[in-house]
Amino acid sequence: MMCGIRASDCQWLIFQFAMLLLLYSIHFEKVTSSNLPQSPIESPLNPQPVLPLLAPSPLTPFTNISMPNLSGNCPLNFSNAKTALTTTAIDCWGSLAPYLANSICCPQLDATIKILIAQSSFSSGKLSLNKTHSKNCLSDITQLLEAEGSNHQLLEICSIHPSNLSDSSCPFVHLADIENTINIPTIIESCEKIDPVIECRDKICQSAITDAAVKIASRKIGSRLSGDDVAMVEDCKKIVLRWVASKFDSSYANKILRGISSCKINKVCPLVFPDMKNISNECGNKIRSQNTCCDAMEKYMTYLQNQSFITNLQALNCAHSLAENLQKLNVSNDIYNICHIKLKDFSLQVGSQGSGCLFPSLPFDVTYEQSTGIDFRCDLNDNVEAPWPSSFTYSPSPINIPALPKATSDQSGLRSTLLLSTLLLLSFFTW
To answer: Model confidence over 272-293: pLDDT tens digits?
Structure first.
């Protein structure tokens, strides 16, 4: 946004415009929320199911669109992966990127980098870059993504370093060496028709990639691998994944890479749990006051909700981890049930009524349209109870990963056009 006046006056105009958008969003929520289904139980931790939020088109002028300043010293052909780069920029859009990082943004960025290196191997014959090229190419990638609206701190958010583009400790990176070592037909057959649900259950493609990585690492060592060689195998897995990406067009390669990453993502809880002493004091042993206990729990959940959007399966893992830690602090009562804690309460809250937005466990991308802005779908917007380990044995069968936890109603994910007012508007002043 250009202002041909003093900076202070420009900031005031931006602030006034932001406030107008905020008033618009509040009015819009009042109009739309009356048509949404009501939650059967009302409580601060169990709000009405109002779902997700979009950055409307008036926000477009705020985005930091500019011409990329490329180094001129990167051998990657960016034009061959334009779709992947655009998808990444939208998945990592501006101030939303930190909240989309774990489930959408960073997996897509990682896939794009692998695809770019894979395609460069057609001319270079190598599935890695040297240190100098890695640094220059990473700078160029971020410049291209920022030019399309991505967050300017994307590398920090996703912990991407030049070493992610190099060979690290894997002993072989040349195509000829790789293809003389691995079982090409087996890997192609295992990965060419990947289904995220089946893959996470049976690990067909992942097992083929691991076997290939072990063969490559063992070829240098000349003997069986030891525990000290685990890091080398992991680095070789990255090389094999790049090789797999080189065997398919960028769109399908992206599907394979995102499908594999979703298996890993959904197995863990990405949230950081702060000290739980206040909950244990109020909810431990015999609860003296249910209101005081639930108030402590609500404050704690509010902290968790400010961290990130998470998938429904991640929420299951988070619910189990939190309950397990609380049980170690003598919280034996099912406070999820007592305080009406739902799975959606572990994810970022959206809309004026603070309804949690859980992402699907299957890979998906954020979308952008000129008329609507940033858009994404929230899954499981109905009231799915958070399971307490004492009454629920947490042992998710591989057949259910990724899959949906059973909802308490048939209500499917909803979409709405609510403004992400506080998160989006106020963050523009830091750009």
So the answer is: 999 999 999 999 988 999 999 9
